[in-house]
């Protein structure tokens, strides 16, 4: 099973490039991994991927257990033109009590159970036959004597009473299937009446004259070693299974359906078997209630985050193999020990650089460019207080491999992602937004890196109004937006009005107001989250 590697729900350059660079490393080490993203990429990240000609990772909606993860009975189905006997034998041999019925190759047409077969065997129409010639041969373990029709339809008559009564039966016609033994007069009569099919029991044969006449009259003939009673008993089981198909619209599931939804439906209906059918109406097999006792959980590796609310939906249903992060520890727990690499570095890519060195695997030019981009993005081209000396040394090495200038490329990258043109107030606030909790109180921080900070400040009142509405709707104590000037390395801050006193205390500013400029404040991890969290934790 493939392992998915991804960052948080608000993809930024560090999380996306970390997922790609780590996936490359893991695949070189023999694992089967694939980088994914949990949301839409921002302009800066799109610029980076385009610059290094790297395809954008696919979107990962969730990692919930799906029907395709359950070891259901794949390819368990039967064609509608199979015999009732074949369907019954198939169920017994496979230990199932129901069976999806298909036509053509896999086109689903309905479902049949042992109950329907038993009902038909006891209460069915014993006089009619609607079967293929080959089905009759198989069910009766017979031999082909003469065959003119692929399909046999008609009324069954067992010639067990007197010849006089049989010869006087005016209902014998080309629509009659006759079961007969060593009774020459009856056989000759049936041949002359051009019946549909003669079944010779007890391994009886036709004389040369009878064979020639039957062939001339195009009469189907089968020979079987079974006796008349057994043949009469079995012949009805050669009928097409579609003839007793009563449940044409049963409850079905698709491969992508969630197992939790299956449990909900199954608990209501109390059925034992469920056909698996795709959107095109093709059958994939049969899911038994017993099959859901075991299933494969999706395998994942997290980068640049370790909190459940920042991660993919359904994470509790997946197996976390590893976490690579440079943030504070969150509330995520696992059922088994995992590899958790958490280091005091400015970027997840700096940690991944160490993993490359430890594994002795060379970093390709394009991957080096991606890793460098993640470092420069998270550290504002190494100017953020989160940038360590290790980050700076790693950045130099990656820049050498990628053959790019750190300052020139870094500013080009930041500028590419800093334009607010075309974005709504909501899109700006939640462009790079994360939520936190302290002292049972929630707060959120959005940060936008831009050269166009005046565009936001000129609409300050509208932004504050939106922050007020958002904080009330979410029940958050604080929702703040930091507009970071990437040239002067400082941030203007906006917040919901009720949080003004708290923000004043957080930055020890008596004159705190909406749009206040905080010089040197550019790191969410070191200068935004800790300041607000500290005040919330000290509140009564």
Describe this structure as you would to a colleague.
By secondary structure, this protein is of the alpha/beta class. It has 4 domains: 3-64 and 298-416, inorganic pyrophosphatase (n-terminal core) (Alpha-Beta Complex); 68-122 and 243-293, CBS-domain, CATH 3.10.580.10; 142-225, Udp-n-acetylmuramoylalanyl-d-glutamate--2,6- Diaminopimelate Ligase, Chain: A, domain 1; 425-537, DHHA2 domain (Diaminopimelate Epimerase, Chain A, domain 1, Roll). 36% of the residues lie in helices and 22% in strands. It is built from 19 helices and 23 strands. Strands 3-2-1-16-17-18 form a 6-stranded parallel beta sheet. A 6-stranded mixed beta sheet has the order 8-10-11-12-13-9. The chain has a 5-stranded mixed beta sheet with strand order 19-20-21-22-23. Helix 1 packs antiparallel against helix 12 and helix 12 (365-378) packs across helix 14. The longest helix has 16 residues, at 13-28. The chain is elongated. The two termini are 50 Å apart.
